[in-house]
TrEMBL record, chain A:
GO terms for cellular component: axoneme; kinocilium. Keywords: Cell projection, Cilium, Cilium biogenesis/degradation, Cytoplasm, Cytoskeleton, Flagellum. The gene is Rsph9. This is Radial spoke head protein 9 homolog. GO terms for biological process: axoneme assembly; cilium movement involved in cell motility; motile cilium assembly. Transmembrane segments: none annotated. InterPro entries: RSP9 (IPR055316). It is found in: Cell projection, Kinocilium; Cytoplasm, Cytoskeleton, Flagellum axoneme. It comes from Cettia cetti. Belongs to the flagellar radial spoke RSP9 family. Its main location: other.
UniProtKB/TrEMBL annotation, chain B:
Keywords: Cell projection, Cilium, Coiled coil, Cytoplasm, Cytoskeleton. PANTHER family: RADIAL SPOKE HEAD 6 HOMOLOG A, RADIAL SPOKEHEAD-RELATED. This is RSH4A protein. The keyword Coiled coil applies. One of its GO terms (biological process) is cilium movement involved in cell motility. GO terms for cellular component: radial spoke. Residues 204-218, 340-357, 397-416 have a biased composition (Acidic residues). InterPro entries: Radial_spoke. The lineage of its organism: Eukaryota, Metazoa, Chordata, Craniata, Vertebrata. The gene is Rsph4a.
Length: 277, 543
């Protein structure tokens, strides 16, 4: 969610019972503009909060001129002091997927790899490092995964310029009520996976400036899908909750420019999803 | 196409399409004919198109109006585009009027319902009555609770909390309620559930069609019993009797005790009518422990799972609520104490009362040590009840036939008596999973310690929270309604296929005796005969 609209957005996302205390909210509204100034981001998004056993991580993302470029991520334990996280690498992602269980809440906690994946541990030992994975790396990988798999934006909110960079669409006035109820009007805000596989016939109807991302309706499992869509507050707000990453909530007020998503959860993927539907 | 022609010589329009005789030339001598020609031309221009409903006359008029208003440069070069734009403008207006109507109702209906919550139906008499009867207000102060939880960052939107507050007030007005509490909110796929935990006034039953669900489940179980009896009554071919005995049904706990201590009402949204959930049976709890399903939001939705859940979504919801309450409802130690008359058995202590001498420990202590919190709801045993019951004793009454034979066999298999932790155990005794403790305690703020609130989060049931501040404490649940397990959920495997019939010597195959064996047997038999005869006859025999 946009840093400037955090108070209003939190009110809309609170349907799941998760939110921020007044102290943290006040701290955020103070520290996020400072972040923008210090790191020279064009936009700062408050990404959400990952609950660890002993503490919570608050995550913010900063975006540069191209909104689709890899984002800089920062974390904080108290919403005041932010530390930059390194970008995620493929090994980090692969290892972190194997680590199970809650986050501990301490960024320097080390998960012993020997239990999890003996080969990786062996490889690390050979290259001279210890066979551990730090919680910070797991945090980076988890945030990257969540963004990749369930980061959602409405259709038309972002446009792709002919040069390839992505900007917010200033003409976006919100989805209409009819469109807002369909899963196909929401896109994953990540690199393309499925779009290339569509037939030419389907692609002919698309508008390349706004339809350059994958829509949500192709998410596995099909049918009920991995999204729960509800109209809250008497139909004025559309709330999408992800069932794959429990705790990710996306909200959009149709016919207005307000939209955003936030994650309030434990940072674990829900692998039991097929049994639960 | 020309609607008017071809003109015949006697008609006034004849010759109009000839270059010399167009209406624009004064060659037509007769002014009357010219006027008629003009009228025909205009009528032709005014003809509406069958496809679009426009006509050329109006279209040209609009184009010229637009051109004269806007006065663009090089008009003659862009005249086609101007014509297209004017046509587009026409179309858009018409489609808008068609689209607006269906979009309006849903939002406004919901707003109407919420508004109905605000209408105060209290008349003077009712208000007085209500004040006299109740010693303590039955309505909980939802906003106060919401405030404390908000200090921890937990809770719903303030508007939604207020709607829930008003909805609870409605509930109290309708049902005979002694105490009421906002239990929490469970999210579902299509709709959510808002749950109120209620204790009805003694002796009164809630007036609700909650009986229907109970009946359907009871009927289902009776049917399986009957089917078996039918099998046994067949005398024609006498198939082998089924030796399958379904495990005896464990009776549910009486309303007001154990898992059914409280009655729960749910609604999908504040403003919708409250529905009472049926009491929970041990079989449902046992099954709910084995499955993990999302709630859809419809109370009568079937729960399709293995092992098959005995009931529909309302029963599953009730079972999960019972498990969550038993696992996560805590209070500061010492707030509740056992009633004065001490019970001898640990299991018997079901009642507790508030301790008037309770001194709340400071918040720092409540956060540091988990021994300052205690469960005040009895844990659920493996059997699915809070108080253990020996099912074999009951089985005599339930089943009608063939008990005497079976009882002797089963005596050796007395089910083990289960004992759970006694009421009011400290939560420091709760086991964690792997290296994760069962509870996480935090203070709501470190910056202002004198006004901070102690917050407990459950790790076994993510979404269950409790807060304590001085004498005030409260539990709440916001979540999807599932227990946390570090390993992935593995569904139960189907049981091994049952043997079709008991194996006995009559039907076991044995190898036929070989020829040598038969010969040996025959010889042995003959020898036996010989010996017998020799003994009888005193004479010698032939070979």
């Amino acid at each position: 969610m946009e840093a400037l609209s955090v108070p209003a957005a939190l009110a809309l996302v609170a349907g799941g019972g998760a939110g921020l205390s007044p102290e943290r909210r006040a701290a955020l509204s103070v520290s996020l503009p400072l972040l923008q100034r210090d790191y020279r981001f064009e936009r700062v998004w408050f990404w959400g909060c990952i609950q660890g056993v002993r503490g919570a991580y608050f995550i913010a993302e900063g975006l540069g001129p191209d909104r689709a470029a890899p984002r800089s991520r920062l974390y904080s334990l108290n919403c005041l002091d932010w530390s930059l996280l390194t970008p995620a690498t493929k090994e980090m992602l692969a290892l972190a997927e194997q680590v199970k269980g809650r986050f501990q809440g301490d960024p320097s906690f080390e998960y012993s790899l020997a239990e999890i994946n003996a080969e990786a541990a062996a490889r690390l030992v050979e290259s001279g490092k210890e066979p551990v994975i730090k919680e910070e790396a797991r945090l980076i990988a988890t945030i990257e995964q969540i963004d990749r798999e369930v980061g959602v934006v409405p259709r038309g909110a972002f446009v792709k310029t002919p040069l390839g960079s992505v900007h917010e669409n200033r003409h976006f006035e919100g989805l209409s009520l009819g469109e807002a109820k369909k899963l196909s009007s929401y896109f994953h805000f990540t690199d393309l996976v499925n779009l290339k596989n569509k037939t030419l016939l389907e692609k002919a109807d698309l508008d390349p400036s706004t339809d350059f991302l994958d829509s949500l309706e192709h998410d596995i499992p099909r049918g009920k899908g991995s999204w729960s869509m509800q109209l809250e507050k008497g139909g004025t707000v559309v709330v999408l909750r992800s069932l794959l990453w429990l705790g990710l909530t996306f909200y959009h007020v149709p016919m207005t420019k307000q939209f955003g998503y936030a994650y309030f959860g434990t940072g674990e993927k829900n692998l039991d999803l097929p049994f639960m539907l | 196409e020309r609607g008017h022609g071809p003109y015949r010589p006697h008609e006034p329009g004849y010759g109009l399409d000839q270059p010399g005789y167009s209406p624009y030339e004064d060659v037509i001598p007769d002014p009357h004919a010219r006027m008629l020609a003009i009228k025909n031309a205009k009528a032709y221009l005014l003809k509406t198109s069958t496809k679009s409903g426009l006509n050329l006359y109006d279209h040209f008029a609009n184009i010229l109006t637009k051109i004269l208003d806007e006065q663009p440069t090089n008009t003659v070069d862009i005249i086609e585009n101007i014509s297209k734009d004017v046509k587009w403008a026409e179309f858009r207006k018409k489609m808008d009027t068609l689209r607006d109507e269906p979009l309006i109702p849903p939002t406004f209906e919901a707003a109407e319902k919420c508004k109905a919550l605000f209408v105060r139906e209290g008349r003077e008499e009712e208000r007085e009555e209500v004040e006299e009867e109740m010693g303590e207000p039955a309505l909980p102060n939802v906003m106060e609770t919401a405030f404390y939880f908000e200090q921890a960052g937990i809770g719903l939107n303030k508007d939604e909390s207020y709607y829930i507050f008003l909805a609870l007030k409605n509930l109290i007005r309708v049902q005979p309620i002694q105490t009421c509490r906002f239990w929490g909110k469970i999210l579902g796929l299509e709709k959510n559930y808002i749950i109120a935990e209620v204790q009805l006034r003694e002796g009164e039953e809630a007036e609700e069609p909650g009986e229907e669900w109970e009946e359907t489940t009871a009927e289902g179980e009776k049917e399986t019993g009957e089917a078996e009896e039918d099998e046994q009554k067949e005398k024609e071919a006498e198939p082998p009797k089924s030796t399958y005995k379904p495990p005896p049904e464990i009776p549910k706990e009486a309303n007001g005790t154990g898992t059914n201590k409280y009655v729960y009402f749910v609604c999908n949204e504040p403003g919708k009518p409250w529905v009472k959930l049926p009491p929970v049976t041990p079989a449902q709890i046992v099954c709910a422990r084995k499955i993990k399903k999302f709630f859809t939001g419809w109370l009568d939705a079937p729960v399709v799972s293995f092992p098959p859940f005995p009931g529909n979504e309302a029963n599953y919801l009730r079972a999960q609520i019972a498990r969550i309450s038993a696992g996560t409802h805590v209070s500061p130690t010492g707030f509740y104490q056992f009633a004065e008359e001490e019970e001898e058995e640990e299991e018997g202590a079901d009642t507790y009362e508030e301790n008037p001498d309770f001194e709340p420990p400071p918040v720092a202590e409540m956060v540091e040590s988990l021994a300052t919190w205690a469960h005040h709801v009895k844990g659920i045993l493996k059997q699915g009840r809070c108080v253990w019951i020996n099912p074999t004793q009951k089985s005599e009454e339930n089943e009608e036939e063939e008990d005497e034979e079976e009882e002797e066999e089963e005596e050796g298999e007395e089910p083990q008596e289960e004992r759970g932790p006694p009421l009011l155990t400290l939560i420091s005794e709760d086991e964690g999973m792997k290296n994760i403790p069962a509870w996480t305690a935090q203070a709501s703020t470190n910056l202002i310690p004198e006004y901070s609130v102690a917050i407990l989060q459950s790790n076994r049931w993510p979404g269950a929270y409790a807060f304590a501040s001085g004498r005030k404490f409260e539990n709440i649940y916001f979540g999807w309604g599932h227990k946390y397990s570090p390993e992935s959920h593995t569904p139960e495997l189907p049981p091994p296929a049952q043997a079709e019939f008991p194996t006995g010597p009559e039907i076991t195959e044995t190898a036929d005796p070989t020829v040598e064996e038969e010969m040996a047997f025959k010889i042995a038999q003959e020898e036996a005969l010989l010996e017998a005869e020799e003994e009888e006859d005193e004479e010698g025999e032939d070979d």
